[in-house]
Every structure is written in structure tokens, then in C-alpha cells.
Amino acid sequence: MPGLHDNTRLALADREPPVAAWVSDFGDLLAMVPLANLAAADAGALLRREGLSGADAALFTRFTHGHPLALRLAASARGARPDLTVPDAAVAIVVTELARVYLSGLDQPTRAVLDAACTLRRPTLSLLGALLPDVPPHEAYDMLRPLPFVDFGPDGLVLHDTVREVVAALLRVNDPPAYRAHRIAAWRQLRRELRTAPPADLWRYTADLLYLIENPAVREAFFPTAGQRYAVEPARPADEAQITAIARAHQPAGAVTVMQSWWDTMPSAFRVARDSDGSPAAFQCLCEATSVSAWLLAADPVAATWREHLRANPVPRGQQVLFLRHMLAADGGEATTSAHAALILDLKRRYLEMRPRLRRIYSLAADPATALSQFAPLGFARLRDGAAEIGGTTYHALYNDFGPSSIDGWLTDLAAREMLIDDDALLDPDRRQLILDGIRVDLTKLEFDVLQYLYEREGRVAGRAALLRDVWGYDWNGGSNVVEVVISALRRKLGDSAGSLQTVRGAGYRFTTPP
Questions:
Q1: In the list 23, 125, 236, 435, which could disulfide-bond 137, CB 3.0-4.6 Å?
Q2: Residue 411 placed within a domain
Q3: In which domain, by residue range, is 146 found?
């Protein structure tokens, strides 16, 4: 090197970063360039240049997270075996080769720890301890930290996306029971920690729970894999013509008139997904229920059904309700297009902003069968007597009640149902039943809400005032015994497990899971 000309540049590449001495020895002569995955648009362009179709390119981009080597392997696999389906090619060739590249040389204990860690979004000491009870958490942490594809993050260890996907895919294929056991252990640990998590940490637990959910509708809504080509922002007065044009293209005249009433009355409720040229490609109308005037509710047959249901089934005081009155895209109406998906992502951000007070959302569909095939697993249901005709088209009112614990409780339940966690289930929210030793006991709505509220705060004392506020929806006046009546009814239904529902004198009530 000393004999090289002064205009020579030397490039070195390695998995490991330069040691600290290089920085002090070479100073400004040293430039470190960490390599990252390709953006979704660049990854898709690379695959299309290699001859993959748009659909195949999108699927491989999602699986590889834009990892350059994985993309090259995917393109080679598709070219060599065009008869393979995309999942077959990805798992059989890409995963195997990447595993060889990244995992060769790992000893068995480290590989076991890595297998567990790759089922998590961010491994922490407590989560590693839950997944690997026979390995001291600090030892597991120390095994992971030196690996070249692991970094520190503000909320735990950060594993390279592609490595995490590859290792998790191998574990899922080669050892399904271990894969499921790790995810269930993570769910239980997160649920325990969530009960006492301070508000500032709710976001990390929400993200961790979301990562455990493999339902595509949930994962894609919160963690979109495609590049975001639309900017979602509040609608402007100049957008009225395009919003009206989108509505006219997909709805009858009467429904367009209703939409215009909402625009005239509540323009701030409208948001649009703008294309690269700035024009709205889709729009939605979303607002809190309390902000809608009685006149507008009465003038809109669909919103009127929401109002009646909300009157018959009020939410507790302090909890919030959203009305999603419109969501239409220029290129597909109610159908899920890329512009529509951008609005759904924006809606999920609103969910997270409003937790832990968001209790319920109301929506609608002209084709409820198609809508519920996608959203019923997420908790959406049709309102009984919720059909309304507008302009010759029948619209069906839908709603999703997230429960007393809002979005985090909803996500916990989604993950539990997906992983079929029923070995220690106490409550069945779909049937509104108590489950004890395999025996199901029907509960009233109030009994279920009270027991669910205490169950989700297991081991913590809930005062009468908190129960009245969060379950009944009104402030404690000091003279009501409604809480005691429901607690007594629950103890009767708990039978031999009645001792799990404890009275803490002068403080309130506490629940512990029956042995």
C-alpha cells in the first residue's frame, strides 16, 4: 500500500465492521459504508430486469426484504425452474442457500438461541428467558450480540430482516412444534409485561404483538412490504371535484349525494391518498362519533344504523368510537388496491394514536360477503338490522368492538386465536363464555366485560371507580352496588374457582388465574 499512487482508492468488503484502531490510524482517509437492503422499488426493478413478471417480482421482494444476494438467488431459481411456484422456489432454494451463507460455522447452542430469537421482532432478556427457560437470558443475549447480522436497538436486539426471515422459515418447515412453542411463549410473556407497561412503552409491545400475527390482512396493513407510492394527507378544498368523480364512478347518485353532505358538513374528516402527480387516487371519510351532528346522522341511512346500535350498546365513558363512512379508490372502488391499502395503513396509524381509549369502529360495505371474508377474522361483524338502501344499492353496516383493553387487547386476542392458544383459555370472546376445565358457562355482556377487564389486569387491583368508569361508563357516585352484584354473579359461575376473584378491602378487586 505505501507504494500506491496518491489517487488510488482501496475498497474492502467484509461482514465485520473495521476495528476501532482503523478509525484512529486512518482518520479522514477511512470511509465506512454500511450496506443495506435495496428499497422495494429498486428490488422489483432488479427482478424485472432478470425476467420475472410483476407479480413474481412483488412476491420475491416481499420475501427477501430487498436483500441483494437473495434477489439474485430468487431470479436464478425462477429462471432454472419456471415450473416452481413462487413459495416453493423461495423456500427450497433461496432459504437453503442463504442459510448456508449466514449460518455455517455456528455452534449448536448459538443456533438454538438464534432460532428462538428469529421468531421475535426484537429479542430482549425477558423474551429470551421466556422462550429458552433452560438458558440463562444473559448467556443467550451474549451469544447473539457478536453475530455480524445483529445490532443493538432502542427496544432490543435488531436482527437483519433477511436473516430473521430465513431462520424463521427454516424453523417453521423443519420443526413446526418448536416454532409454535416459541411464538406462544413470546405471546404469554408480552401479555404479562403489557399489563404493567407504562404508556410510553405501549408502542413497543404493540409492535411485538403485531409481529407475532401472521394474518396477511394484519401484517400488510401495519407493516406494508411494497413501496409506498402514495402520500396520505388531509383533503383540500381543491380535491372536491376528484373525490366526487371517484364516488360517482363507483356509487349510485343517491350515495354520492350523501357523500357530498359529509363533505359539506365535515370536510376535515376527509383524507386522500395522492399519486405522484398530486391528484387523489383514493379517499376516506373518518371521524370520531361524537363529532358528527345529529342532522347528518339522520340524513344518512347508514350512519343512522350506527347511531341506533351505539345507543343500544354504549361504550364506557372516556372510550372513543370511530365512524369510517367512506373509503373508495379510483381504480377499484371498495376493492383493495394499492391506493386503498395506503388509506388502510393510515387508518391503522389512527388506531395506534387513539389507544388505549379507542373502543369501537363502524364501517360499511356494499358487498359484505367479500368484506367479511377478509375482515371477520379481525373481529368485524355485520350489524343486525344494519342494512340500508341508498340510490338502489343496499349497504350493510359493519363494526368491530376492540374490547375494554382497546387495540392492545384486540391484538393479543388476534395472536392467541391465530396460534390456537386454548390450553389455558379462560374466556371465549366470540361466544361470550367462561371456560373452566373444558366446561363452558354463558356470561351476560356485563359479566363478560367485568371479568375480561380484571383478567387482562391479572394480579393488579382494580378499584370500583375504575370498573364503573371503564366498564359501565359513568363516574362513581358512592352509592351504587352494581359492581358487587356482578362480582357475586361471577363468583357463583366460577364455582370452585371463585377464590380467583378476590376482594381487596378498601381498594377493589383482583383476579388470579385458577390453578
A1: 125
A2: no
A3: 105-212
